[in-house]
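User: quick one, sequence for these tokens?
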């Protein structure tokens, strides 16, 4: 799902699902030709994945953070968006010409309403778990790096997009689709079946 796939499908004069089906088929043929087998071929366009995403989103919408705030809230987001990366960029992420270093294109300035995950409320909990060894990060240099990031504070994470039509709709707000990278994380749950919650 996402803007990049929809744009490529448009270039090919196809619907996004049709385009994704064709790309997926080429991978399945490649695995067959290479005699690579698998127990399951997982796609985030499958209904089973969509069902898990909707279930997770609804649970998050009802949940509270360690500080008692809503885990999911609505707000405005403004930033530089690179369609190729399907992510927002900070000025420091861009090259000296203001271009995405991966795609050599200028990100577009977007402002839209989104749903957010209140990640900032988890900063202290995560620090405590790491410092107490509940989350054991090795080597020590990586542990120090993560603690350094946490000491700077975490930013809330946009979990939806208003301007992207192809994707899984936010169940309580059909004008929003689940942000592609958030949905991709949920694939780890849907790949396992996820029915058990």
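Assistant:
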């Amino acid at each position: 799902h996402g803007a990049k796939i929809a744009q490529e499908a448009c270039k090919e004069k196809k619907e996004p699902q049709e385009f994704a089906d064709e790309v997926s088929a080429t991978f399945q043929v490649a695995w067959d030709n290479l005699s690579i087998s698998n127990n399951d071929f997982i796609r985030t366009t499958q209904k089973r994945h969509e069902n898990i995403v909707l279930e997770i989103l609804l649970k998050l919408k009802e949940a509270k953070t360690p500080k008692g705030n809503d885990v999911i809230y609505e707000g405005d987001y403004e930033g530089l968006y690179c369609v190729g990366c399907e992510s927002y960029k900070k000025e420091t992420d861009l090259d000296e010409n203001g271009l995405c270093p991966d795609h050599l294109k200028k990100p577009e300035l977007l402002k839209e309403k989104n749903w957010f995950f209140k990640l900032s409320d988890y900063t202290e909990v995560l620090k405590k778990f790491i410092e107490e060894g509940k989350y054991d990060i090795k080597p020590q240099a990586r542990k120090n790096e993560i603690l350094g990031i946490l000491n700077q504070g975490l930013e809330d994470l946009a979990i939806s997009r208003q301007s992207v039509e192809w994707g899984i709709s936010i169940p309580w707000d059909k004008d929003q689709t689940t942000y592609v990278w958030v949905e991709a994380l949920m694939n780890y749950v849907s790949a396992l079946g996820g029915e058990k919650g």
